[in-house]
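Intended use. Records such as the TPR repeat-containing protein entry shown here are meant for training and evaluating sequence-to-structure methods. They are not intended to support clinical decisions.
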Amino acid sequence: MPNFDNKEVTMSYSEKMLDQLDRGQLADAKKSFAWALRKDDDETLFNLAEELYGLGFLNQAQRVYLKLLEKYPDEDVLRTALAEIAIDNDHNDEALTYLNQITEDSDAYVPALLVAADLYQTEEQFEVTESKLLEAYQLAPDEPAVLFALGEFYNLIGKPEQAIRYYFALIQAGYLEFAKVDIAGRLGTAYAQSGHFDQALGYLEQVDPQYQSSDIRFQTGFTQLQLGKLNAAEQSLQALIDDDSQYASAYPALATVYEQENDYQQALKTVQEGLSVDQYNENLYAQAADYASHLGDDQLMDQYLQRAHEIDPDNLTITIQYSNFLLSQQRDQDNLNLLASVEDDEVVDPQVEWNRAQSYWRLEQFDQAGQAFSAALPAFEDNPDFLYQLIDYYQAVGERDLMFDQLQRYVELVPTDTEMAERLAEFEDQMY
């Protein structure tokens, strides 16, 4: 029969501590830790520090590393470990002190560069972060930790094209997973974010089931949507909603699937379900308004656009969408009141000016209409619909010369409009 007592005796104090932590015996673990510092050999202590760091016991890990550094002052790997702990504790100056002690000829120099990059990234000094990572890459271009760090950095700052290079290099080196991260998922997401949807889907569909997070599942469904694979996208996004009903981004994407199938009733229902999850998303309200428009429900469209504008009155896209609706309803004073909320910057969006012009004109405020038409003209001088209105306006206010100029321009743009061509000919006969 095995002698379990002997086995217990041969356990190191470090092993005892970790076992006690696993059992939740914190008081006993504290005692074992004290004995480990006194009795265990240095290699065992180093392994203990790594385990403690991974478990989040930063202060205890730091004590072990400091003890070892006193005995081995030339071991820079201890300094990088202490720097990481300092960063985790928001003691960046302390971390820099350790890192600055590591010279370029040290075996720990590349790991130190990675730790330094992490430090500067926490401070959002991204240019310095990038320079540290690229220096590490220059020194160790095949080191997976360096490739992973560069991929993650470019992914973080929204440069997926650059991230692709390093994630792809990891996969080429045989690393489908690194630091408990699925690299296929990262690469597929980066491809999708950079618009390379064919490549993206190939990698997203390879993601191991254990890494099929809601984010990955959404990205898969969204990518299928971009590729026009509507049935697959519908299945992916609906399954995501069934499993994670709080994943708000899935609803507008699924609604877009139904929109492309011309099922506006189901699209509206889906967005309404999304609003129950994300009730302060102005873009969802605007999307719902668009579907209500296709269903001919003006009252619901008005309700949703008004709510979207209330949530974000500075969202010019929504303001113009609401303004277009008010124009279609000939609610001109409401439209002018709405557009009065648009700040009068040095350059106002020309669509705002055009919309103002139409309401001023219908309200017979001709001077204001003329000013708004003139402000919009440079942006819409090649737009037949705008010119058509402008011609009628100039005729109404008796601006014959301006009317003639725009009539000529219109006929140049739309020579097939025989009615306007005849109107121009008549006008020319009157002039000559």
